[in-house]
Design brief:
The chain has 165 residues and is of the alpha/beta class. The chain is 36% helix and 18% strand. α2 runs parallel beside α3. The longest helix is centred in the C-terminal third of the chain and has 15 residues.
Length: 165
């Protein structure tokens, strides 16, 4: 079961995963670009993110994939673009499990798909990625909803912060 969620701290999908983790007292972390740069300014210190040597987001993307057991990409649109497309390519290159959950695929039970992915791959550290808020303004709410529903459905909560640290 999940003991930590990591993300890069960008607005949108990344921030939703971090905020959800904090609200549920689940360990969180990850890498962010030097200077804690995000599209809305400086990523606040309350997020337990470490800065990469580079201010470019590509490095943090690769390091978060490297330091996780698997990556889940959340998106509203089916076609990935920009940094989210890079995340998918780097995750495939790493050989680690990758799941793309797309809200446009309405026939899927997204929380159940996420839980099966986590369980079948024995994931302890999950990297959450996806579009920034300026690209998909509603992705934050959707990521939160899927995470909340997934962990409520399994009848167990992720390992709480403090127990896994």
């Amino acid at each position: 079961m999940i003991r930590m969620i990591i993300s890069g701290g960008q607005t949108g999908a990344d921030r939703a995963a971090l905020d959800w983790s904090i609200s549920r007292n689940v360990s969180h972390g990850g890498w962010c670009p030097r200077g804690r740069v995000a599209e809305d300014g400086t990523i606040r210190a309350g997020y337990k993110l470490r800065e990469t040597p580079s201010s470019e987001s590509d490095q943090r993307t690769g390091w978060n994939i490297r330091d996780s057991d698997a990556t889940v990409i959340f998106s509203l649109a089916q076609e990935l673009s920009g940094g989210t497309r890079l995340t998918a390519a780097l995750a495939r290159q790493s050989g680690k499990p990758l799941l793309h959950l797309c809200r446009a695929e309405r026939q899927l039970d997204h929380p159940t798909v996420l839980l099966r992915f986590i369980q079948s791959n024995d994931i302890a550290v999950l990297n959450v990625a996806g579009p920034r808020a300026s690209e998909e303004p509603q992705v934050y709410q959707w990521v939160w909803k899927v995470l909340e529903s997934a962990f409520a459905r399994c009848g167990a909560e992720p390992t709480k912060a403090g127990k896994a640290d």
